[in-house]
Amino acid sequence: MYELMIGNYAIARGLVEAGVQIAAAYPGTPSSEILPGILEFSKRDNIKIYCEWSVNERVAFEVAFGAAMYGKNAACMMKQVGLNVAFPSFLESIEKELSGGLVVVSCDDPGPQSSQTEQDTRMLCSLIGVTVFDPSSPREAADVAYYALRLSRKIKKPVVIRPTHRVSHSREKVQIFDQGKRKVKLSEGLVNKGKTTNFGVVSSGMSFCLAMDVLQELGLKEKIPVFKVLRANPLDEKAFEFVTQIEKILVLEETDAVVEAKLGFNGKVYGRLNGFLPGAGELTYDIVRNAIIEMCRLVNIEVPFKDDTKFEEVAKEIGVASRPPKLCSGCPHRACFYAMKQAYPDALFPGDIGCYTLGIPLGAVDAFIDMGGSVNMASGFYDAFSKEGKSVAILASVGDSTFFHACLPAIYDAAKKNKKFILIIMDNNTTAMTGMQPTPQSGITASGEKTRSVTLEATLSALGIPNVKVVDPYEIPFLIQQIKDSYSALPKNKGPSVIISRRECVLQTKAKWEKNIPLEQYCTGCRKCIRNFNCPSLEFDELKKRVRINWDLCVRCGNCLFVCPEVSKSERKIES
Amino acid sequence: MKKFFNSIQILCAGIGGRGVLLASTLLMDSAIRKDVYAIGSDEYGMSQRGGSVVSLVKVGKVKSPFIGKGNADIILGFEESEFLRNLSYLKIGGIAVVNSPKETYESKVKEALNKRKISVYTLDADGIAREGGLYQASNMAILGFFSSLNIEPFTYENLKGAILERLKGKMVEKNLLVFERGFELGREIVQCMNL
Question: A388-435, pLDDT tens digit by residue?
Fold first, then answer.
C-alpha cells in the first residue's frame, strides 16, 4: 500500500513501524508535523504510543532519553535551533549506554525560511560524534527513521535524523508496511556511475536529488559520477576513495560545509568553503545548475545549456512589490502592538519568537534574539540605562507558549533583582505559528484529551510577580491606559509589571463578527491605518486615493476604527 | 493516455493561507491516479501568514521537487502579482493560468510574454469563487480552468476524481461547483481560441 505524504509524516510512519513507544516534541517549523503524524498512525493502526507536546525541547529530549534509558523505544522531535535548547543533555547523553532506542529528529531550515538563523544539525553531530542521517526524500526519510531506531537499539546510543525543510515538507508516495515489516532501502555511495574521471559530484540529502535532476536536464547523467552521502557522520570511507579517484569534486549539501570540510583535499574540492558556492542559504536549482556548468567548463566538458539572462532582466523589470507575511485580519496581537506603540512610541521594544515577531513592521518589536530573549533583553536594557541614570520605557512582548517555553527563570530573576520594565504576554491560548499546538495553559493533551491547565496568572503569582493585569487587546483605549498605568506603577513596584493581553487566536476560533465597519466612509486618504495597523484587509485604491476594505478577508473586528483619526468615538464600539 | 515526455513541471504561485497547498496536492493526486510518479514541495511556517508562497509539483521522470529558471511548463497564478514575480521560471512556450479580473497586461509584460511564446489564460477566480459562495475556493476555479486544457494527467476527470477523494463533508459540493465553473469557462475560452 502506498500513500501520498509529506516527509514529516514519512518519518512518523517509519518510527511507528519500527515500534516507537514514547514520543515527545516541541513544535517548530519545519518539524511540527512529525508528532501529529505519529498520533495519527498510532490511532489508525491501533498501537498505543505515548505522545506529548513538551514545554520545550530540553524537556522533550530528556523525557525521551529517560524512557530510552529504561529500555523503551523513544523519539523526540524539534527544529534545528530547538536542539540548542536540548544541547546540555544531548551532549551528555552520548556518554551513557541506552537499554532501549532513541531517535532525535532535528529539522534544519536552509534559507532560513522560518527561523531566526540557519544551523546545520549535521555539524553539531559531527563535532560531538553522534550518528546522523541526511535523507534525500520523504521515501528515504521513512526508511531512515525505521532504520535509525533499530540502529540506536543496537549501538545503545542516540541516533539523529536531520531532514531539511525541503524533505520535511515535500510530498511523495510512500510505501506503508505493518509494524516491524518495513523493507528498508538505503542508498549511499556511487549511485550514478559516470564515465569521466575529471569531474564528480558528492552530494548529501535533498541536494542529491537536485543534482540528479540538473544532470538529467543538461544531458550529463551518463558522464558525471555522483556519490550520494546518507550518513553524514561518521562519513563512509568510500567517499574519500571516490574523491581520490576524481580530478575535481563539487560538493552539494545543506546548510553548512560539513561533508566538504571532512573531505578536505584542498584545491580539488569545490563547494561552500572555497567560495565556489554561496557560504549560506538554500541550494536552489539555479545555483546547482550554474555550479555544475561552471565545473564542466573548468574541466573542458561541453554543456549545451544557454543561460537566458535577457529574459530574467525583463522579468526583473516587471518588478512586483514584495509581499512579506502579515498578522492575520483580526489578530489580537495587532491590536496589542498598536496599543503598545500608542502608549509609548519611543519605548524600547524587545520581542520574541512566534507570530508576534511580525510586530516588527508595526514598530512594536525592535530587538529579538531567541525563544525567551524578550524578558532577559528587557532586564539587560534596564540595567544598561539605569546605570547611566536614565529612565526609559521598556515594553517587552512574548507569546504564551514561548513564555512557558523559556521565560520562567527569566521573569523570576527579573522580579528578584527588581528590574523595571513592562512585559506583555500575548496570550492567544495556543501555539499559533506552528499550527495550533496546545500550551500548558490550554488544558488539552497532544491527542486532544482534557487535562489540567496551568494558568499564566497562577504561574506568575508563584514566581512572585506583584503586578499582573489581564486585558482584552480588542479594548484598545483601555489597553493603552493600562500600559501607562503599569509604567507609572514601576517605581513603587518590586520588579517588572506584567500585562496579560488575552484573546484567542482568530485563526483557531475562525471568529467573525457581524459589526458594521464604516471605515471607508470616513476615509480622507491619509493612510494612517495602513501604515500603523498593517491589516491584510486594508487596501489602498490608487485611483480613488482612498482606503478600501477587502470584505472577503475582513473578520469585522472593528479594530481599525480605533486607528482612523476621522472616525467618531461613538462608532468605536467593542463587542466581545 | 498520451505518452509522457520526460516530465511536467508546475509552479503554483500564490499567497499563504489561500489554498495553494491544497491545489498542489490535488495536482499530485491526479498524477498518482494515473500511476505517474509525482513529487511536490510546499512552504510552511512564517510565509503562511499571508506572504508569498510557491508550491512546486513535478511529475514523470524526476527526482527532486525543484524547478529551475526557464524550466516550468506551467505556472498556476493564484494571485496575479505572484504569477508575475515568478515569470522567469516559465519556459519558452509555457502556459500560465492566472487569477486576475483584467484581461490584458501592460505593454511591457505583454511584449515579454509574446517574445517567449507564453500562452496566458486569465480568469476572475475570486469572482467565480464568490459567486459559488466560497471565497476561499478560488484555487478550485483555477484548477477547473486548467483541467479544460486537457493536459494529461491533469484532465477534468482526474482532477475531479482527486477532489472527490481528498475533500470531505459539506466542502466537497461547494468546491466542486467552483471547479466546474472554472472548467466551463476554460472550455469556452479554449473553443473560442481554436475557432
Answer: 999 999 999 999 999 999 999 999 999 999 999 999 999 999 999 999
For an interface test with B, the pick among A169, A209, A284, A326 (most B C-beta atoms closer than 10 Å) comes out as A169
The pLDDT value recorded for residue B195 is 65
The interface predicted TM-score (ipTM) is 0.93
Distance to chain B for A457, nearest Cα, Å: 29
Q: Quote the percentage of chain A above a pLDDT of 90.
A: 90
β-pair partners for A539:
A548
Mind telling me how many Å the CA of A77 is from chain B's nearest CA? Answer: 16
Q: How far is residue A489's CA from residue A418's CA, in Å, rounded to a whole number? A: 13
Position B107 scores a pLDDT of: 79
Min Cα–Cα distance to chain A from B195, Å:
31
Whole-structure pTM value: 0.95
Structural domains in chain B plus CATH codes: 8-194 (3.40.920.10)
Distance CA B148, CA B128 (A): 16
pLDDT at A576 over 50: no
The CB-side HSE value for A235 (13 A sphere, CA atoms) comes to 23
pLDDT band at B108 (very low <50, low <70, confident <90, very high): confident
Closest chain B residue by Cα to residue A353: B46
Domains of chain A: 2-175 (3.40.50.970), 189-307 (3.40.50.920), 332-509 (3.40.50.970), 519-570 (3.30.70.20)
